[in-house]
Amino acid sequence: MEKLRIVFMGTPDFAVATLAALIEQGHAVVGVVTAPDRPAGRGRKLQESAVKKYALEQQLKILQPTNLKNEVFLKELQSLEANLQIVVAFRMLPKVVWAMPKHGTFNLHASLLPNYRGAAPINWALINGETETGVSTFFIDDKIDTGEIILQEKTYIDKTDTAGTLHDKLMILGADLVLKTIVQIENGSIRKRKQKSTGELKTAHKIHKDTCQIDWKKSLQEIFNHIRGLSPYPAAWTTLVNEDQNIFLKIYGATKIEENHQFAIGSIISDKKELKIAVKNGFILPTEIQLPGKKRMKTSEVLNGLNLSKSAHVA
To answer: Model-level pTM?
Structure first.
């Protein structure tokens, strides 16, 4: 059995769990490719990616290319003599990179492919009200998330799951699936299957600010799913209209009440302890909100210092 020499490619926390699993299992990770340090925060200090921080702790070889076709980077990558590359939450690779190792390059994706190809599969599964999702490993090809599937693992989505809690579930499930995939590559038992390319497939395109705006005309369940599907990041938002003020309001958490009522859509009913927003067939009760320039707080705490007029509403 040929010993695997692995180059790992990833950037955020989601990828760290897989890299840590590889190290803990004693796999030879000969290099880590991650995003360049970027300025962040008010001081615009350079921030290292979560993967880089972990790789430094483990004293792993780190590459941070800005251009994946750069000749210096390609020569350095080639010099690592990897025979397998593993990608988790990185970026699209050029063929010169993904075709380099003998055993190819496989990717971990946080959905049951071919559904939810794209940048935000966890968010969209929740926004669309799915009751199950999962993780997939597949060999990278020249398109986005279309390569031959190696393994998949399903999991249920709880009614209380947010993007944050589902992220953590899939992060752990995904790390385990990567280890199972490696076993099959090592012992030559791998069975690939092509992805379905016909029929109606659900997509997971990148989340933009406009995507996050709440449409209060939608149903109670759709609005609830929208809020939890964007929590804790990037967060659903709305405009709070309070007399002559239009206030940008982020909503991180909410509960819902199914109830027939006569209030206009978007009306606010508040008693200083809770905030109820009238929608079709019920009310949305934000539990955690954020006002401009303030930190994220419990709604009851925000209401103590917020004078809402009787005509206050969301738009």
So the answer is: 0.94
